[in-house]
Each structure stands twice: as C-alpha cells, then as structure tokens.
Records
---
Amino acid sequence: MAANSQFAIAVHILAMLAKSCDERIKSDYIAKSVNTNPVVIRRLLSTLYENGLVVSQTGMCGGSCLTRKASDIKLLEVYRAVSTGEIFSLHPNTPDQNCSVGKNIQTILEKLQAEIDEAIEEKLSRYTLQDVIEMVESESAEIV
Amino acid sequence: MAANSQFAIAVHILAMLAKSCDERIKSDYIAKSVNTNPVVIRRLLSTLYENGLVVSQTGMCGGSCLTRKASDIKLLEVYRAVSTGEIFSLHPNTPDQNCSVGKNIQTILEKLQAEIDEAIEEKLSRYTLQDVIEMVESESAEIV
DNA sequence: CGGATTTGTATCAAGATAGGTTACAAAGGG
DNA sequence: CCCTTTGTAACCTATCTTGATACAAATCCG
C-alpha cells in the first residue's frame, strides 16, 4: 500500500471533470468511479485546487470543475501538483565524510536524480488531459 | 523513512568495491562509510549477488568484490537489481468498469508508465560504475 | 582439528506513509 | 431555515523500510 497512487487518481479525477465540461461533478460520483471513499477524492481535489487546476463549490448544486480547457492542462502539471518525492531516496543517514565515496556520493546521486527528473518531466509535458480523454474514448471504441 | 534508498546505497557499496579492485571488502567497513548497520549492507550485497554483480566469501579474509570491471557495470543494472516498483502506483482498488474512464484509465496509465520507465532506463544506461568513481575523484579534487 | 572471523539470513522492533473511515463545521441553494 | 455538499481534522490499519540482535554456516590460520 506504500507506493503513491495519487497521480493515477488525480488523472482519473481530472479526466472525469474534463469529460463533463462545465458541469460540476460531485466527489461522491467520482469516488464511485475511482472505487474509494469520497474524502480521498476531496483531499486530492484540495491539492489540485491549490495548484490552480480545479475549483469547487459547496452546497446543493456543488461539485468541482476544471479551471481550464483539457487541452491546456499538461500531465506534467498534475504530476508536479501531487508528487512528493524523487525516483529514489538518498541515504537515510549522512555517509562518512572522511571517506571519499561517502563524501561525494550524494552530490553525484543528486545530479543523477535531476537528470532523470528532467527526462520524466519531458515525457509528461508531451501529454495533456485532452489526450487522456481521447485515449479513453479510443480504448472504449476498440472494445466495440 | 518509507522511501526506498536501496539504489543509493547499492551504488555506494559498488563504488567502494570498484575503488579497491580485487581486494575483498568487508560489510563492516562498507557499513561505516554508509553509516548504517552491517546487516543492511549484507542484505543488499545478497541482492547484488543474485543479480551477478558481486561475489562474497565468508571467513577470516572474507568480504565482497565485483564480478566485472567497473566500466562494464551500468547503473541501469544496479537499478534493475534493487528497484521494486514503478514511478507511480496505479489505483489501489479496481476502478468502476461501468464508467468509461474507470474502465480505460489504468491501461492508459500503464502505457505512460512504460514510456517513463524507458526514459529512465535510457538515462541510467548512459553511466557505468567507472563513471561514478571518476566523479567521486573529480569531486574530491574540486575540494582541494 | 579448533578457534577466530565473516557472511547469510531469520526475526523483531520502530518509524513513516498511504489509504480508508467517521465526524462535523462551513458554505451555498431552494 | 433546511438540505446538500465540500473542507478538513482525527484516527485506525496495513504495509514498507531501516535498524538491530542472534546464530548457523563457511572459511582461514595456527
């Protein structure tokens, strides 16, 4: 359970909002599709709100919707909004600074992390939410 | 503490073995440089052994050493040896298959994962252990 | 052969994190 | 003013990673 599925769920949420453009969608409805508790959805919606991707409203006709067109939202933005850590962690304890490897390994690994991050971000900047919902539709079509 | 630092420590271990070519290194010695318990090192050495990167020997003059030249060990191999999961997890529970998004989102995300993995592997295949120890030395030189 | 050393591995404890759940205040609409 | 929905805090549980102890098995040396 430890690995982070927030990106997956965030994309799911946003895809649903994108599909019903303008109409406000309730967390309860999204939760049924994601197959989880509505609070899990609202927690994520809160993060997405902080990152300017959605707005929500309380009350009878409440719910959430996108702040922009799906074609203007890159998956990279979603990733940045919800991502917490790096691909791999560095040492839990500071290595021995009297050893040349211990002294320098972290700097080297950080550079590697940065390079990998760049590669990931490049990939994720290629796709927008619009691409995702088009894929959803073409996958559905394939079945038929 | 939950995030996985095995790749970082594995590179550290292997860099130390690479630096003292042929000579067997004890887990206790590596543990001091990594600043952790020797068992943590031995556990990782065991994984690296399973992946054909090191051999170890018990006894008085025991210890571990590389099976190949440092220039023949790509960081990609190290990554594959110790990596457990993907960059992001999919949904913890199966999404609602009666919803077009729920039905297809995982397939789409898996494709994205595969693309990202490929990008990471490409990056990691560019560097060998030899590069790492050269970086260790040039970093050390910079200080002087 | 016997003793010292080192690895290999099982087992346990501690700390962190994610996710699910309940509860309830606050906002909004009719 | 009541009903609905979001926002958020609080708590529980499962799982993962690391650290630590313990001990058998292997190896080397005298």
---
Amino acid sequence: MKEKTANKMVAFWFRRDLRLDDNRALQEALNSEFPVLPLFIFDEEILADLPEDDPRLTFIYRRLQLINDQLRPYGSSLYCVKGKVPEVWSSILKTFQPKAVYANEDYEPYAIGRDNKTEQFLVQQGIPFKRCKDQVIFAGREVLKADQMPYTVFTPYKNQWLHKLRSQGLEFKKPENRDHYVKLNWPLPDLAELGFKASKLKVRDYSLDKVDNYHKIRDFPTLDQTTYLSPHLRFGTVSIRQIVLQVLENEAFLSELIWREFFMQILYHFPEVVHNNFKRKYDFIPWRNNEQEFERWTLGLTGYPMVDAGMRQLNATGYMHNRVRMVVAGFLCKHLLIDWRWGEAYFAAKLLDYELSSNNGNWQWAAGTGCDAAPYFRVFNPAEQLRKFDPDKAYVRQWIPELHTASYPSEMLEHTQARERAISTYRSALK
DNA sequence: TTTTGAGTTGTTCGA
DNA sequence: GTCGAACAACTCAAA
C-alpha cells in the first residue's frame, strides 16, 4: 500500500453479515466517494469462550475465504486480523487512515458496547463510524406500541410488524459500484495461523424448496424437511430481506422470522433477561440442579427416546429439530427442575445457529419464566410427543441405535410424578 | 381511565 | 375414538 492511497479509502467492517450482496452498510461504503477496504476482526473477547475447533468458527472462516475469492476479480482482498477490538483498531489506523468506517448494526448487549466504544475511538481520530440496519427488517425501536413502549406479547407485535411491512414494503437497495474496492493483495491467514482447527461439524446449505408445506410438516422431526436457514441468518450469509421476499405469502414460516425479531427487540429493550427471569415473580423457584441428572440429559441418556434423540442429534450435528427443542427444554426445566440457564448455556455451546436473543427467549418460554411463555402447568409429556410427532419412531431410531435393546436405559423418572412435582414446585414458588 | 378480550407450539380427565 | 373443560388465575394491548 502506497502512502498516497492509504487515506483515500473507507473501511467496511464485516461482522455477522458475511456476504457481498444486499449488504446495507457495505453498499453504502461502495457508494461513497472512496474505494472500500473490506476487513474482518476475530474478536478475542468472543474467542476466549470457544474451543479452537468450534464449528461456527470454521464456518465463519470458510465464508471469509469465499468472500476473499469473490473480491479477487476486483483486485482486492479481505484484511483479516485477530485481537481485541480496540487494539486492532489502533493498529489498523497505523496502516490505513480511512475517511469513514461502515458497519451493520448488531443489537446484542456486548456488541452495542463494543460498537459504542469503537465509535468513540474512531470519532476521536476524526473518523465517522457509520452504522446501518441490515440483519433485521425492523429493529428494536421501530415496532412499538401506541404508547411508544416495546411489545412483550408476540401476537400484537406480529400484527404491528406485518402492518408496517405492508405499509412500507421491503426496501431493496440496488447493487452499484460492485468493484469499488481498495486494490489490495493481502493473504488470508490460514486456520492454524489464527489458532483454530477445522471442525468436523458442518453448517449445511439452506433450502426453501419445501417451505410451502411448512405449516403441515414442521412438527415432524423425521421428515428432515427443515430449511437449515438459521445459521445463515445468524452469520448473515444470506440477506433477511431476500428470505422474507421469498416467503411473504407463507404466514406460518414468516411468523418464525418475526419471532426472531421479537426476541431480538426483547433483548434490546430488556438486556437483563440474559441473567434474570423476564417475569421476576418466578425468581423463587427452588431449582433442584442435580448435576448427575443434568449430565444424563446432555448425553441423551434419560430413557425418554424423544429427549435422548434430540440431545444426540444436537451433540452429533449441532442441529436439533424445533419441536424436539421444546421437548428437551421442557424436560430439563419441568421434569428435572434444572435452571433454564443451564440448558441455555449447553445449547449456546452446541447449536450451530446459536443466537443469544432466540436462545434466551425460547428457554425462558419453555421454563415459563419468559414473556408470553407457556403457563407453568403446561408440561410436555415426552412419550405423548413421541406418539404424536414420530409415530413410527423413525426419528428416535435414527439417533438411538440401541433403542430396543437392554443397553438403552430405562426412564430416569416417572412422568406423572415428575409432572406433579413440577406443578406443585412452581405453584408454591409463585405464592 | 376503565374495561374487555386475548394469549405459539399441551396434557389429562371424564363424559 | 372424540370432545370440551380444567389446569390458575394473570398480564398485556387496545378500544
């Protein structure tokens, strides 16, 4: 990089928007007067909690390779570094002096803090930090009740969300200046140089082929007809606008995408849910928190096939069917009376589509402590769920080869008793 | 301000 | 086998 060109550029910071097309902040940067320096930071604050072969890191890395390949025809490449974000920015500014830095908004508490600090630092150097809405159709402040307070019940939120979408439509920005990048031939570090190892688990491509039948098939885990979309929305390898456009008429599936934004705005407005019950009156549930029982749950050794198949699918693949997630979560919170935070943390470590807001919101839903949650006396019967949703046992047999042999454990507790224990425990805690 | 209707995903029991 | 009611009363959104 010649001295002369080092300051005739703007920077675009990739985070959870790992794509070149229909990327709001990237498009804004490309439309600016100056060529774009594309960059990615492996954030050591986040990496500290992850194993070196975390499959999500491997996925991110593969996508960075793809982006790097896509930049090559434009004579550019991805500037990829690892470190603590503030230190990385000081070091970047020693090499480049961008006229502005562009990034897409991220609404998690950690990300908001990181971005505010980054903005403060950049602005001190006279560099504006420009943020765009990209990962959602509507951000937390955009869908509010008439009194300007956030919704905490899904159905009215969804109605308002749909009303807003219909009144203003999906806003697509036309792709322009696609090649307006800084000429840069920067080698992408390989996995080992970054301190990572390739994971055996893979994020699958998504497919919307069968989504038209979503309302009919969604509860049957054996049909394996899920879209596998969630990790792609998590890491922004596909644009939410593009997906919504494709499922506009499909209310059942669209609702799931609205749930995603519902829980994002809950986390945005009520960041304390990360640690606390949304409904504080549930604070006094005396969780049993038996570690041996928790371990049996994680290993898929409860003796309830629907629960065990789900946990084994999660452990083996990083995915779990949505219906089964409800069953295993309900079993942990209600039957075993283990704090939902334990289950939340386990899912966070294992799920390829892990996202704080959805994971927290749905665990609190299953525990009955969340907004718009299941009533506490609603206790899933894992045997009944199996009978209803996997009647020929294809799903459970797939994940439990020893199902009908002596080596499969018997039920670790009896359903009716556990159900009564759960209801009476909750009932007395609420008094 | 007060009132009213509604609220993701279930299970069990008894008629 | 099917159906409605009970579970326990509560909070929220909107008129």
